[in-house]
Design goal:
mainly alpha; Four Helix Bundle (Hemerythrin (Met), subunit A); 5 helices; elongated
Length: about 180
C-alpha cells in the first residue's frame, strides 16, 4: 500500500541510496592523499556520505517501526546495534511481524554503523583509505538491496488491497501492528 505512512520511509531510502552512492563514487575516484584542500574535500565528502547514508537507513527503520506502532529499543547504551538486532528477527505475539532484514543484510548494516562511528570519532588526518574498503563493500550491498528488502517487507505486512499477492507467507498482512 502506497500511502503517506510509507512516504517518509521512501524518502529516507532515497537519501540513503544517494549518500551511500556518492560515498562509493568518491571512494572509487580516490584523491584522499592529494595535499591540501582537494585531499581534504575527498576525505570529508566520503566520510559525510557514509555517515549520512547510515543515518538515513536508521531513520527509515524508525519510521517503519512507527508505522507498526512498535517502540524502538529504549534505555540502551548500544541503541544502534539493538535497533538492528530488533529488525533482523521476527516478533511474536500481539505485534507479530517478520524480520525486516535478513542476517546477511544486518552484517552489512553493522559494517556501515561501524564506519559511521569511526567517521564521527576521527579527525581528517586519521583517515586511511584502504581500511575503509570493507565499509565501502557493505555500502555497495546496501545500495543493491535496501529498497527491495523494504518493499518485500512492506508487501508482507501491508499488502496492497488491489494486489492478489498478500506477501506470500499466508499471514494475510495487516496495516499496523503486523499480521492479524
Amino acid at each position: 500500500m502506497s500511502d503517506s505512512r510509507w512516504s517518509d520511509v521512501d524518502a529516507d531510502i532515497d537519501q540513503a541510496l544517494l549518500h551511500f552512492g556518492m560515498a562509493v563514487e568518491i571512494f572509487e575516484a580516490g584523491g584522499f592523499d592529494v595535499p591540501g584542500r582537494e585531499g581534504y574535500k575527498s576525505t570529508s565528502a566520503f566520510k559525510q556520505g557514509m555517515d549520512a547514508g547510515y543515518t538515513a537507513v536508521e531513520r527509515a527503520i524508525e519510521s517503519i517501526l512507527g508505522i507498526l506502532s512498535e517502540e524502538p529499543p529504549s534505555g540502551r547504551v548500544d541503541y544502534h546495534k539493538a535497533l538492528l538486532d530488533r529488525v533482523t528477527r521476527p516478533l511474536q505475539g500481539e505485534h507479530a511481524r517478520p524480520a525486516i532484514f535478513d542476517d546477511a543484510f544486518k552484517q552489512d548494516l553493522l559494517e556501515a554503523l561501524r564506519m559511521r562511528h569511526r567517521v564521527r570519532h576521527s579527525s581528517y588526518d586519521e583517515f586511511v583509505p584502504h581500511k575503509a574498503e570493507p565499509s565501502v563493500d557493505a555500502a555497495r550491498k546496501i545500495i543493491a538491496r535496501l529498497r527491495a528488502a523494504v518493499t518485500e517487507f512492506k508487501k508482507k505486512i501491508d499488502p496492497d488491497p488491489k494486489d492478489d499477492n498478500d506477501g506470500g507467507d499466508g499471514a494475510g498482512g495487516g496495516a499496523s501492528g503486523g499480521p492479524p
